[in-house]
Amino acid sequence: MRRLSSTQELEKLRDEILKKRDPHQPFITVCGGTGCHASGCHQVVDAFKKVLHERVKSNGVGLRVTGCHGFCERGPLVVIHPQKIMYQRVKPEDAPAIFQETVLKGKGIENLLYEHPTTGEKINTEEDVPFYKKQMRIIFGNNGSIDPTQIEDYIAVGGYRALPKALFTMKPEEIIKEVKKANLRGRGGGGFPAGLKWEQCRSAPSEIRYVICNADEGDPGAYMDRSLLEGNPHSVLEGMIIGAYAIGSREGYVYVRNEYPLAVENIGIAIRQARDLGLLGKNILGSGFEFDVKVSRGGGAFVCGESTALMASIEGNVGEPRAKHIHTVISGLWERPSNLNNVETWANVPVIIDRGADWYSQIGTEGSKGTKIFSLVGKVNNTGLVEVPMGISLREIVYDIGGGIPGGKKFKAIQTGGPSGGCIPESLMDLPVDFDRLTEVGSMMGSGGMIVMDESTCMVDLAKYFMNFLKDESCGKCTSCREGTKRMHELLTDITEGRGTMDHIDLLEELGWVTAEASLCALGGTAPNPVLSTIRYFRDEYKEHIINKRCPAKVCRAFLKYRILSDVCTMCGRCAKACPVEAISGKTRTKKEKGIPFKIDEQKCIKCGMCFESCKFEAVEAQ
Amino acid sequence: MIPFVIDGQPVEGKESGNILEVALDAGIEIPHLCYNESVKPYGACRLCLVEVGRRGRSKMTTSCTYPVMEGIEVLTQSEKVLRARRMIMELILAMCPGDKLIQDMAKQMGVEEVRFKRDDKDCILCGLCARVCDEVVGAHAIQFASRGDRREMMPPFGEEAQSCIACGACVVVCPVDVIKMKEEGDERTILRWKRTVKMKKCKICGNYFAPWFQLEKFREQAKLTKDFFDVCYTCRT
Amino acid sequence: MESSEIDAIIKQYRGEESAILAILQDLQAKEKYLPKEALEYLGEKLHIPLNKIYRIATFYRAFSLKPRGRHEICVCMGTACHVRGAQRIADQMNLQLGIRPGETTEDQNFTLETVNCLGVCAAGPVVAIDGQYFGKMSPGKVEGTLKKFRSDKKEGLNAKA
Fold first, then answer.
1. What is the pLDDT of residue C60?
2. Does the distance separating the beta carbons of C55 and A318 come in below 8 Å?
3. Which spans in B69-211 are helix H?
4. For residue A380, which of A402, A620, B85, B185 is within the disulfide window of CB 3.0 to 4.6 Å?
5. Which residues of chain B make contact with A513, given a CB cutoff of 8 A?
6. Which domains, and CATH codes, for chain A?
7. C125 touches chain A (CB under 8 A)
8. CB A71, CB A141: distance < 8 Å
């Protein structure tokens, strides 16, 4: 790979790459996203490798391990090109058949195809699957076609087309104008207009400026940035190079969570490959512009997603936020003007430059243009990553794309915005999802995590869970945040363990208010949201815990009682075996003896639920 | 000098100043714990909260970290401020119910009851000891460890603070007086950091004036004579 | 740990003071914890006072000052996993191993940790052991999963191809 010193050379390379790829030649893509990793995609890849190695007719058939396809519920996912036949829940032993039937003969294998949940119809191609139909995958779509460790794949799908356009046909001010016109707002949760941020950074007087990519995705349940950085790192990199040119920066950082080793690896590979080709470094594509990127790893601290804490971390300090009376665009990393944007925000930049702000601003709502990638997880049929135009309703996301609630259970609420957000009940499901509408009802769109909950989720327990998370992650500097989250957690624990009083709710609201008002950064500033929103929409559930000492969702153990129904018990003895504290007594039925129905000793019972799990006859009841 | 307003009263502050110091100079009382003139403002205790009005917008912020700016309107006793301040005081009192200063401060603010489970901590986590040690003395002996509700002030590994020179600055600066110093014979101990040092005696007045090892270090670095520090500074002048 | 090994790590980052986090991470990855002597040595070499290094080492969850077990178990406690019953799995781990999150078993075989989100939400509840992900976990599957990693005198874990 030689260094490219002009746009012409880049286009020549692109032609060369495309010429080598016959669009009619069959090839196999296997999703290599983390979700599929957990489902065993490695073994599937190995199985295909073996088949291709052994079969004579495998000449010319390609195998590509790609970035995350998004339909994580159904992984491992395999797509056979050129027909784009999609197989889900593929096992290693399916590889030979897939090769024989689909690759060679073009025939679909029934049991591996996606089956429509209501009509039972088998669906052949990816784009016809209901999960994908309502999506608009302008940012995420390429994940399925590229191997993230091969820059050629990115170039083949049109990557690095926006960069020469920006460097050679647009002035920095024009690029900023275009980004402003597109109204690109930060995708990390803040929603601040990116173009305005770039402009402020550019106009701050300094020789040195920094551009930073915030890949410290810390919201539990959100993994969009992970999949984007792992699956299509060049899209982020290209955005950063364009941004650096517009802002006037020569040095960039990508700050990645240390819990994402594959993302760290893949962005590192992407940077090296871009450097080799001359897309990073001195005199990029012969433009005279110089820019390079370093990767900085997080140390396991959610608070480092906050911009000033993140910068402190890059500087080699603890992630303690500082007051932002002087913004980071004026004085940030090492007191230089710094522009920080989220992974997804950066990935939107090449699309905007390539296709234009006019095209881009046709998507979305008045105040929220473009698409957003969400992680739809929890009690939903089709868990995975979805990219939709802003303005789509929550109901469409959960039901049309998500396929509704599994097990026929009833929807209860959806948590958006992670620990900074709140829950949204059924009555508000028709709200359009964008930066502003969800904030009005006490939540926020946040970075994109959407956790669906059903009747078996206890909202008080959920609030307690979030408060536990926040008090753990608080840096501890501010009294209001450190003590506030600690005491809110204490109060919620009291309520879930039967010691709650109605005064506690008032105290929670008061504490919540102070924590938000008095704390320095957004961690403390948004900490009370999960508590306040669950009190707002599920006050009755709190009352049940406090007054009736009851948990309607049967989650809070202090209120649970496990009981074995003696007339259903088959005396198999499984429960007694599973019980870790030997609280279950009875006699197993054998050929000779009748057996005695099993019984739980309430005094010894620690309510772990293992008996309930182990019983195959539904004889154990939780009340 | 930059003019602005606090509680309707016109005041002036120098360019790099903060609201709290200007207020205190002007005789306006704003409660504070983690602020001290000798070190950079930190903004940990959150007691010095005020409302700052700027360009038509109002924001609640700590007065010790907010820079002096022309035309801002500061409110130190608004309802919002008092409501937040009282809760923060209650939280600190719940953390350190045994501290006399905290008890007095709370009483003054009208915080009578503590609605939370009482801890039995003594340190209010203001960080002044470490900030003085780092910024003024330069000994770097102690710092915050861990985060969140496990945050505590300690020497590295919780062992004897090896770089502590027993100067006593932390003892003096601690607002709640929980860092104690003991002098016995020729030894001085900073009890909280488990640090005992041998003190050098002045040949003339007989006072123990500084730790041995520190003087030895200075002597070596500055290449002074062996008996240079046999006489204390006071006697030398 | 040899001081030359630490020197090699420092050299990779050209001895820059701001690289302290990255250096500590490499050290942690190598030794499975941060030995006290290594931190003291680092402080001297990089001219960073020990109180700052200790503060950094205790602030970030990636670091451990105590030696970790042979196998590291991470129970994901992200919201999606929580809603699918992660707490019960953590409790079951506790019962099976006799240790709480942050602790190591007496035989030094297992260290139990909880993590706030592994980013594998679709497969939740998720447990990662030595970086290997086990999706769709349930309290009932814990014992069987742990068995694969229990130290066995008869057969080393590397015996499997």
1. 96
2. yes
3. 79-95, 100-109, 128-131, 169-173
4. A402
5. 83
6. 21-132 (3.40.30.10), 151-360 (3.40.50.11540), 371-454 (3.10.20.600), 459-546 (1.20.1440.230), 560-622 (3.30.70.20)
7. no
8. no
